[in-house]
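Fold this sequence, please.
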Amino acid sequence: MILDHEQSAQQTCFSVVAYFSTLLAIVITLCALLARAGGVPQAQSMSWFGLMTIGVGTWITAYNHTTTAYATSYRAFGKSALVKVFGAGAIALSQVILLLIGVGGMALLAGHIFGLAVGMVAAVILLSPPRVTIAIKPTIAQRKYLEKHRSFWRFSLPAGLLNIAAGKFPLFLIGAKYGLFAAGLFALTERILTAPVSLLAASVLEVFKRQAVHEFQTVGNCTQAYRSTFKALVILGSGPAVFIFAFAPDLCAWIFGEPWRGAGEFARILAPLYFLNFVASPLSYVFFVAGKQKIEFMWQVALFITTITVFLAPLSLTRILWNYTISYSLLYFVYLYMSHRFAKNAEFSRDKAPQSVTEER
């Protein structure tokens, strides 16, 4: 969406996302219903409304993410932020209202779906994205679009799935090996450390995307955008990282109670890792701009293997977390080195840069 600014290309992108998210929503819904009919405990514990709305939520989420990318391509950051505020506000407000009127646990799910829908409507009104067209099968234009950007679904999609799996496995393995209390401590630690990543890094990424693509297509590299973003991320992330490293144990004990001091100890160990994650995450978009999705996928494979290896080791949880921080930090240093190298784009000339960014994908 950010690479192709032509109206027809962006409309095709919306249609491609709509087609496959619709297909995915239908498959997910059918699988949920079959699981309920087959007696799967997790499916039977959910309500029919919950099972039927998983696919709907998937579709709306996909549309909202695509609309955000569309807004970024036109530097409409203010309107995009307003859309997110409308969506998040509608989720929180509707959930509270439904709980107050006695809907019960269903209120959380219903409020979330309602908030997603409100965000989608707000995006349509404020951003006026291209209209979606859905057919029985992808059109010729959509198939050509998929072929043009094949690196995204061949490498970026599995890389994203591996990244999510690598992020979820530690909590699962800690719970299995060390018990629910240790898992609870680690979960609280993640909440503490990911707050700046999810808020600040996401905002920086939206700005960096547009600047990086613009520089790459005009001068053949995005070194200036990369360096300015890198400096901003280091400045923004160093303060919280140092604060967490210095005061996390006492802070957790003061806010959550003495039994939760362990979460602060975990946070102190993981603070350097999450600082590097805060810096590296927005800059990862360089791999997409430079057409290096395959290399990024290989790095994600190494990250996933490292995660499994570290947490399956027969060591104490503290020792495992130290190994986790050290090994991940080394991988992030490699990641930053590669992203900086690709930002320079030394192998392409000035005249060939725009073609390399768009057509090669």
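The chain has 14 helices and no strands. Confidence is low (pLDDT under 50) at residues 347-361.
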